[in-house]
Every structure is written in structure tokens, then in C-alpha cells.
From TrEMBL:
A GO molecular-function descriptor: alpha-tubulin binding
Main subcellular localisation: cytoplasm
GO cellular component: axoneme; mitotic spindle
Organism: Pyxicephalus adspersus
Protein name: DM10 domain-containing protein
Length: 346
């Protein structure tokens, strides 16, 4: 029987006396802040500053006891609920494996080809292990295309065992109703599914070509990008602006040839060139200074032999790849105009 902590009397009805010396009756504070964090503090005295004689455990010791026997705190563990049954047609609904394949079709009555390569797509439906073969349409082929073999379960041997997705691999041949198909590749989803099942996918193979398909290919076309140069702006800004170059026509390599002074005019308004010969008094030459009339000068021509004449009529942009421009006329250099060599000295 416990006794009164002050008077030593038994703690019985009628023996309880109020201690007149007690003046503090608040409870001890068990929560404090330290460095900005709230922390629990175990009290050492009770109400009225009476010392607590009960053996108290620290929070770390309480946590250790709770971890050793979690069943005392949480009770017995409940068994895991059984997994929900999912049928195959629901688990693999709308999941299809796609393989790219081809087969060779013999062409008996043709001088241009002996066989033709036809590309197909093999679809494997995981929900019911059925397969279908579809041929992508090719324009102007003249062959009935589309669904080659309708969706069904294909037998793989004489016993009637159907094909399984484990039987389809890249780089192997499969036979459907007497026709052999060569599998060359698969899409990324099919590759991920096979690798998740532990199957190593072979690298993609190239599809062979046939002579008829190569002949039907459209020849490569060459396109010329139209120029965005504004001719009206050139006419308004460059009209009556002419570049004049003093040069020498070196004709010393020919019989009785000599160096003749000429003047080259370059008209900026339409990029034309004129060559005029400078005559002196009593030089014995014809009094016609125009050596070459005003025209555009071709710098490089498409696929012409060396024996092709330099001076031709009606040369257009289709035969010329590049025309002479002002940047080609440099003082102190030579320039070739219609097979003649001119030296620009001023």
C-alpha cells in the first residue's frame, strides 16, 4: 500500500490531507525549442515540484522496444489479398507485334524480269495467337494489294500446331500455306516486347532489289533555283553607269600579229560587255572601232568540247553556267573574251 509522500500516511480515504506549504500546482513543461527546433524533454518533477520516482525511459529506448516487437504496437500482420485474375484476351488486348518481310514471286512471261520482290507486313495478335499478312500498296504496280492472308491461326507443321510469337524472329524464313516469307526487321514496340521476354533480336537486314523495281524508279531531276535579283532595281540604279578598262589585245602568237590597244566597256545596267579598238591616224586599218558588239559574255559553258566554236549565236542561260561579272575585271590581270586574251592595264 502506498503512503502519502509528505506525511507518510497510507493513501486511504480519510487520510488525504492538503499540504499547506505547496504553492505551485502547474505541470512540468515537456516541450522546448533548441536552435529553432522543437524537442521533447522528459520531466523530472511532477505537480507541486514533487520528484518523479518512476523509472522513465528515453525516446530512443522506447523506439527500440517498439521495433523489436512491432506486433505489440500494430498487432498481427494481415495476409496479402490474392491477385485479381486477368484473362489473356484482356491482358493482351490491342497488343500486336509487327514484322517486316518479303517474298519473291516468279514472273514466267517477261523479258525484263524473272522474279519480283514483294514487301509485306506480318502482324501477330497476342490476344488469340492469330496472324495476318498485309501488303502495303505501291502506286501503278498493277498487282492486287492489301490483305494478303486474312487474320487466322497459321499452322507451322503437318500436325497443325499453330505459330507462336516465339517462332517469329528477324533473319529467319517462315512458310504460310506453301509461300516462304523472309523476316527482315520489326518495329520498336515489338523489339521491346521480345527483349522483355529474354529474346535477343537480330539486326535489321536489307531487302533485295529486282530489275523491274529499279527500272520503274523515277530518274533524278535537276532543279535550278530561280534568281531573286530585281532587274527593275538594277535598271533604275545602274542606268548610264559604265565601267571602262584600257587593255591590250595580245595577238602576237598568230602570223603578222601584234599587240593592239582596245577599250572594254562594261554596262552595269544589263551586265553586257563591248570591246572597241583604238585606232591611230594612218594605221592602215578599217575605220570601224567596234571589235565586239555589246552582249553578255559567257564565262563557263555546260559540257562543251574544246573544239566547240567560241563565237556562237543565241546562247541562253540553259547552256551557260556562269556569266562574266564586274568582279572578273581586275587591273593587272588577263581575261579571255571569246577565245582572245586581253591584258587590263588601266
Amino acid at each position: 500500500m502506498s503512503s502519502h509522500p509528505v506525511h507518510g500516511l497510507p493513501f486511504l480515504p480519510g487520510n488525504t490531507y492538503r499540504d499547506p506549504t505547496k504553492s505551485v500546482f502547474h505541470r512540468s513543461q515537456t516541450l522546448k525549442y533548441r536552435n529553432g527546433y522543437s524537442r521533447p524533454v522528459l520531466p523530472t518533477v511532477g505537480i507541486g515540484r514533487e520528484p518523479i520516482t518512476v523509472n522513465q525511459l528515453s525516446q530512443a529506448e522506447l523506439d527500440e522496444l517498439a521495433n523489436k516487437r512491432p506486433t505489440l504496437t500494430y498487432g498481427q500482420a494481415k495476409p496479402a489479398p490474392p491477385s485479381t485474375f486477368i484473362p489473356v484476351h484482356v491482358a493482351f488486348d490491342k497488343k500486336v507485334l509487327k514484322f517486316d518481310a518479303y517474298f519473291q514471286e516468279t514472273v514466267p512471261i517477261s523479258q525484263d524480269e524473272h522474279y519480283r520482290v514483294r514487301r509485306v507486313c506480318v502482324y501477330y495478335y497476342l490476344e488469340d495467337d492469330s496472324m495476318s499478312v498485309v501488303e502495303p500498296p505501291v502506286e501503278n504496280s498493277g498487282i492486287p494489294q492489301g490483305t494478303f492472308i486474312k487474320r487466322q491461326r497459321h499452322p507451322k507443321n503437318d500436325n497443325g500446331d499453330p505459330y507462336h510469337w516465339k517462332d517469329l524472329k528477324v533473319g529467319i524464313n517462315v512458310t504460310f500455306y506453301g509461300r516462304t516469307f523472309s523476316i527482315i526487321s520489326c518495329d520498336q514496340c515489338t523489339k521491346d516486347f521480345l527483349e522483355s521476354e529474354g529474346i535477343e533480336v537480330n539486326p535489321t537486314e536489307a531487302i533485295p532489289t529486282d530489275l523491274y523495281t529499279e527500272l520503274r524508279k523515277e530518274p533524278h531531276r535537276t532543279y535550278t533555283t530561280p534568281s531573286d535579283f530585281d532587274k527593275l532595281k538594277q535598271f533604275l540604279t545602274m542606268d548610264r553607269k559604265v565601267l571602262r578598262f584600257f587593255s591590250l589585245w595580245d595577238d602576237s602568237e598568230s602570223m603578222f600579229g601584234e599587240a593592239r590597244p582596245v577599250i572594254i566597256h562594261y554596262y552595269l545596267v544589263d551586265d553586257t560587255v563591248e570591246v572597241r579598238e583604238v585606232h591611230e591616224r594612218n594605221d592602215g586599218r578599217d575605220p570601224f572601232p567596234v571589235l565586239m558588239k555589246r552582249q553578255r559574255l559567257p564565262k563557263s559553258v555546260k559540257d562543251l568540247k574544246d573544239t566547240f566554236p567560241k563565237c556562237v549565236l543565241e546562247m541562253s542561260d540553259q547552256e551557260v553556267t556562269e556569266w562574266y561579272s564586274p568582279r572578273d575585271f581586275k587591273v593587272g590581270s588577263h581575261i579571255i573574251i571569246l577565245g582572245r586574251k586581253f591584258f587590263l592595264y588601266d
